[in-house]
Design a protein that fits this description.
Order of helices and strands: HEEEHEEEEHHEEEEEEHHHH
Radius of gyration: 21 Å
Mean pLDDT: 75
Low-confidence stretches: 1-41
Number of helices: 8
Helix content: 25-40%
């Protein structure tokens, strides 16, 4: 099957009768295939409403099973690790898409997100280091991943476990729904919402951290456009209505970072990773010069 179609326009509304395999249009290598169920992918007729583990269990039963989830960045609203809602859940990952599609996969949420980040061009480790540099050298626990409108916030520290991820580009509100503040509702466009068993103060703080990272990128983009005399036209209106953009506008002070210094430091980080992967590089006669170039 050809891979030159928009995934959810095809699968989300009119699934074909039988699909054995399809070539994903989101991979750069043409020989990578994903498995799909015989019934194809079906969309849910109503907004997603997850208030407790029973709601999530019902969605798990209704979802379509596949080997690994499609990397449709613009549609994913949540990547859920069911064990956060019910410790007795199967070790599966449930992926919710804004157009109503649900995917259930045995691919751990951490592996799925790393695959998504790899496709976007920046690894999660590099994003954490970028956040550390912006945050005056201080590490950030449960660091968000923000690359423009590709913005995901983990529910817990993802370096040690598979966790749920929330797309802040699709979120419009975060509020407590229990008197003790231990339950938090994240509301999304198209009336979707999920209630997470996480204190509201924690999620609020993580959204603010993501907004700080978004603000740095947003300001740098505007500065670059000004430097090159480029006029900008606002695109889709809702991009300024998501929680990330609105939180950015409320920041008391935008991050003050020297962009050129930041680029140099990121080059050094990338070089160290590359050097670590190249074990035989120690024998290179140019190693000393490379170290001086990137690490001095």
């Amino acid at each position: 099957m050809e891979g030159n179609y928009e995934f959810h326009k095809f699968f989300g509304h009119q699934p074909p009768d039988i699909i054995s395999t399809y070539q994903s249009p989101y991979y750069s290598h043409h020989f990578i295939y994903e498995e799909a169920g015989k019934e194809g992918y079906q969309s849910h007729p109503k907004p997603f409403r997850v208030e407790n583990k029973l709601d999530l269990k019902a969605y798990i039963q209704d979802s379509q099973s596949t080997t690994d989830g499609p990397l449709d960045f613009e549609q994913i609203i949540c990547v859920i690790n069911p064990e956060e809602f019910d410790p007795n859940s199967d070790k599966e990952t449930l992926i919710f898409y804004e157009d109503g599609c649900m995917i259930r996969t045995n691919e751990p949420s951490g592996e799925f997100m790393n695959r998504l980040f790899k496709h976007s061009g920046i690894s999660y480790d590099k994003m954490r280091e970028l956040m550390r540099l912006i945050n005056s050298g201080q590490p950030v626990h449960s660091c968000p991943y923000v690359k423009g409108q590709l913005a995901f916030m983990p529910t817990y520290g993802p370096s040690k476990q598979n966790v749920s991820w929330i797309s802040l580009a699709h979120a419009i509100d975060c509020r407590k729904i229990s008197k003790d503040g231990q339950q938090t509702r994240i509301e999304f466009f198209n009336r979707h919402y999920f209630d997470f068993p996480i204190p509201t103060k924690i999620l609020d703080h993580r959204i603010d951290v993501a907004a700080k990272l978004y603000a740095f990128q947003h300001r740098r983009f505007l500065e670059s456009a000004h430097d090159f005399g480029i006029s900008l036209i606002q695109g889709e209106k809702r991009l300024t209505q998501n929680i990330l953009h609105r939180r950015m506008e409320k920041l008391s002070a935008l991050p003050q970072v020297n962009s050129l210094d930041l680029v140099e430091q990121m080059m050094g980080i990338t070089y160290r990773e590359w050097k670590k992967d190249k074990g035989n590089l120690k024998k290179s006669p140019y190693l000393e010069e490379l170290d001086e170039l990137f690490l001095s």
